[in-house]
Design goal:
The protein has 454 residues and is α+β, with helices and mostly antiparallel strands. The protein is 47% helix and 21% strand. It is found in: Membrane.
Amino acid sequence: METLHTLFYFTVAIAVLVAFHELGHFWVARKTGVKVIRFSIGFGKSLWSYQKSPEHTEFVIAAIPLGGYVKMVDEREGEVKPEDLPYAFNRQPLWKRTAIVAAGPVFNLLLAIVFFWIVMVVGEVGMRPVLGEVAADSLAAAAGLHAGDEITAVNQKPTLTWVMALDELFSSAIDGERDIVVNIKTPDDQQQFRVIHLSDADVKSPEILNERLGLKPWMPVIKPIIGKLTEDGAARQAGLETGDLILSADGQPITDWQEWVDYVQARPDVLIKLMVERHDVQTRLLLTPRKVEQSDGTFLGKIGAGVDIPEELISSMQVEYRLSPIEAIPAAFEKTGFYAFSTLKMIGKMFIGSASVENLSGPISIAQYAGQSAEMGFTAFLKFLGLISVSLGVLNLLPVPVLDGGHLLFYAVEAIKGSPLSDRVQMYFQQLGMLLLMSLMALAVFLDLGRLFN
């Protein structure tokens, strides 16, 4: 079920982003007088199609929803009827062809702005950026950060939530900052600042940076009290009830919920002898966690029980962040621009070797992020769509033949020399671009598989 969930949201994400990308090409083509033969979402066998008449555009939904295309009248792709020649793409002036090609990536960036605007207006509920245990010999420890400190700003940018704090830390590192100023509020309410010093080796990849920072969110000690139970879970079948306090498992005292979770997960299909307290009476129970396979092939024990967290504890650590519809407009543009330039910077660093190619994410990683963000809720999934839409727009603008940016490069050369490159030269560079693209895809998939099996 977890795999199907991941595949479903990955398919939804790709379909939405590709559809909007192709809509950009289609809309501008129609507005500039180019005849569009087909607008397809997906490849392969047609599952659904609509065409008002033979002279109108055919709209298609195909079997493989991992892409799409807009097919225009073009003499380079086949014979064109004499009456359609004025509407052929290849016969349009340079500015029209440029606008049509650029429209796809631009629409992706506009879509990202819309997604980020919705997220900011709807609002997000996050956890306050209070530090838990700071790893010894970490960058955070060297900077003087301690458990209980709350990060209030990073490089003068306010950080209301844990996610915002991490975003600013990683963003500053990608931007080339090597001395990051972190404003904190100590447990005794003193306002102070610390400086995290980074080296080039620390920012080779997000994984390395995360490990070397040594930051973890504060985790309260929560009593192992059973909360909500699933109907067919192992916990209910063993006789556990909401409100039961776990005292011990196999004679080992259990003092907090995380300790109980770790104990259960480590014992799939293993009988556990429990001692629980129910209405001030101690009761013995036998519980066998079910063996559940994870996406990485490992197995965990699960019992179908949640924790009973006191409402006052949740409210004390939560913070809500939202903007008015007007305030969210410039903020959404700023967020999209930031992610676009960050993507370009990371690509440039990988190209010159100052950042690891392990920063590449392939379809497997993207699918996992899609499923994980969907599980986190509506706003998290919209943020994921916004990030991927920015990446799709920026990557398509790269001057690589086969991509939209490659065509724009050809048009730039045409504008300079006054005539288009020959078909033979364009074909040569497109084959080279296809080889480069396939090589990058193969590398990304290889890295994905490495992450999956590790």
